[in-house]
Design brief:
- By secondary structure, the protein is α/β, with parallel strands linked by helices.
- The protein has two domains: about 220 residues, 3-Layer(aba) Sandwich (Rossmann fold); about 100 residues, no CATH class.
- It has eleven helices and eight strands.
- An eight-stranded mixed β-sheet has the order 1-2-4-3-5-6-7-8, sandwiched between helices.
- Helix 9 links the parallel strand 7 and strand 8.
- Helix 5 crosses helix 7.
- The chain is globular.
Length: about 325
């Protein structure tokens, strides 16, 4: 039974499933090979999709946010996750490696400029990429904004979100000795990189469970057990990035450089009840981004699969497809 009677499922707003017309493993150097796929119309508006995490990987459902007649949809698994290899590898795996990979993919596919579509960590990466390469990004579609600041990490791993989800927080913290609970990211880092595969997997599943439990406004707090391979890549990569503060030169890097993308149009789609990435970050970004527009979805949390989030993202991209000349793509 639906928890919100009368509310459509997200799939009702998406395009039908499609298969890629191109799949390849791109050698990006440093021992990494990145999975890249293309679907839709080879002559359509190019859009690159940046998945969350870090370490989440892309999924077939991500193709369905775009009209396959109007868009050339590029998905890829970031270093160390999904179908990219080596799996769960953190060496030569930083934000700046990923930014370089995005540009390498664009050049390899012969694309001059493209739309950039990303949510959560994907929104973080989209913003950092656009600030580094404003000439390549024609439009930004962002969901569930994460600015990779200490304030946001403190919210999610320092007890802020725990005020709303105390049972789940209790399960997350209970695996760690009380003396270490003042820094949960560091405490989990020690276990996720312990060298003991069983310990790493146990803590990876707990790390993923804490995040998954809070992802949707409809969540009952019991996300189920995450498959071991996925959890290990997701947790290790995410923790690796968070321990290293996103590999950014200063706290607040994105907002301090937002003037570099002031001319790039885009839309932020943000759930009002996002427990993982609360709306303050989206609000702060919108206030500093001259060409950006913020849309708050009233009855939604963080997940891409929230019906209101999916509906708005599809609507945004339909407008981009109809007006490609406006964006020079």
């Amino acid at each position: 039974m639906d928890k919100f009677p009368g509310q459509k499922r997200a799939a009702a707003f998406l395009y039908p499933p499609i298969e890629p017309f191109d799949q390849q493993m791109l050698d990006v150097g440093d021992g990494h090979r990145v999975y890249v796929e293309q679907s839709g119309n080879p002559e359509g508006v190019p859009v690159v999709v940046l998945h969350g995490g870090p370490g989440g990987g892309c999924s077939p459902a991500m193709r369905r946010y775009f009209d396959p007649e109007a868009f050339r949809v590029i998905l890829f698994d970031q270093r160390g996750c999904g179908r990219s290899r080596p799996h769960a590898m953190i060496e030569a795996n930083t934000t700046w490696h990923l930014v370089a990979d995005i540009e390498r993919i664009r050049c390899a596919l012969g694309i001059q400029r493209w739309a950039v579509f990303g949510g959560s960590w994907g929104a973080t990466l989209a913003l950092i990429y656009a600030e580094a390469h404003p000439e390549s990004a024609a439009f930004l579609a962002l969901r569930g904004v994460f600015l990779s600041t200490q304030r946001e990490l403190d919210w999610f791993y320092g007890g802020g979100a725990a005020q709303f989800w105390p049972e789940q927080w209790g399960r997350f913290t209970s695996l760690v000795p009380e003396a270490e609970r003042g820094d949960m990211i560091a405490a989990y880092h020690r276990r996720l990189f312990s060298g003991d595969f069983m310990v790493e997997t146990r803590f990876a599943r707990a790390w993923a469970a804490w995040e998954n439990a809070l992802a949707s406004v409809e969540s009952d707090g019991n996300p189920g057990e995450t498959p071991a391979d996925y959890a290990r890549a997701f947790a290790r990569l995410e923790n690796h990035y968070f321990v290293n503060k996103g590999f950014l030169d200063e706290d607040g890097h994105i907002l301090r450089n937002v003037g570099k993308i002031g001319h790039i149009p885009g839309v932020i789609v943000q759930g009002r009840y996002d427990m993982i990435c609360p709306p303050k970050s989206a609000h702060d970004l919108a206030n500093g981004w001259r060409a950006g527009r913020l849309h708050i979805v009233r009855a939604a949390g963080h997940a891409l699969s929230e019906p209101g989030i999916s509906q708005e993202l599809v609507r945004v991209m339909q407008a981009v497809g109809r007006n490609r000349g406006t964006y020079g793509i």
